[in-house]
Design a protein that fits this description.
- The protein has about 120 residues and is of the alpha+beta class.
- The protein has one domain (about 10-120).
- It is about 25% helix and about 20% strand.
- The protein is built from three helices and six strands; from the N terminus they run βαβββββαα.
- A hairpin with a 2-residue loop joins β2 and β3 (about 40-45).
- It is flat.
- The two termini are about 40 Å apart.
């Protein structure tokens, strides 16, 4: 089963190709349906500079939002991480926990709902 990470960000392939050690595993691109000799077949899509790929939280680049499928680039080195931070401005956000307190209306609504359920 495919895994969605906590964070990924889309970048144009043109921008990703600026990394001097960039390589692409084109056999892992998503499949597209095409008609060949009257038959519908699935083929790997061809990547162009205008396509967007996803930089995952683990610095792997995928052709889709799942962090463990369609992996196009996985040569995660200190140089790659530096490129991601300095050139792509890639930063994983830090989310702070927010505590939400129930309003008086919600408390009354919950009480009414519990009374309704007891009466059933």
């Amino acid at each position: 089963m495919a895994t969605i990470g906590k964070y990924c960000k889309a970048y144009s392939l043109k921008k990703l190709r600026e990394f001097t050690q960039w390589t692409e595993c084109i056999k892992n691109t998503r499949k597209e349906k095409k008609e060949v000799s009257g038959n519908e077949v699935e083929v790997n899509r061809e990547l162009t500079d205008d396509d967007f790929l996803y930089l995952q939280e683990n610095y792997v680049v995928t052709d889709g939002i799942f962090k463990d499928e369609n992996i196009i680039f996985d040569n995660v080195t200190p140089q790659w991480k530096e490129f991601c931070h300095n050139t792509l401005a890639f930063e994983i956000p830090v989310y702070e926990r927010v505590q939400v307190q129930a309003s008086a209306n919600q408390d009354n609504s919950n009480s009414r709902q519990q009374q309704f359920l007891k009466g059933r």
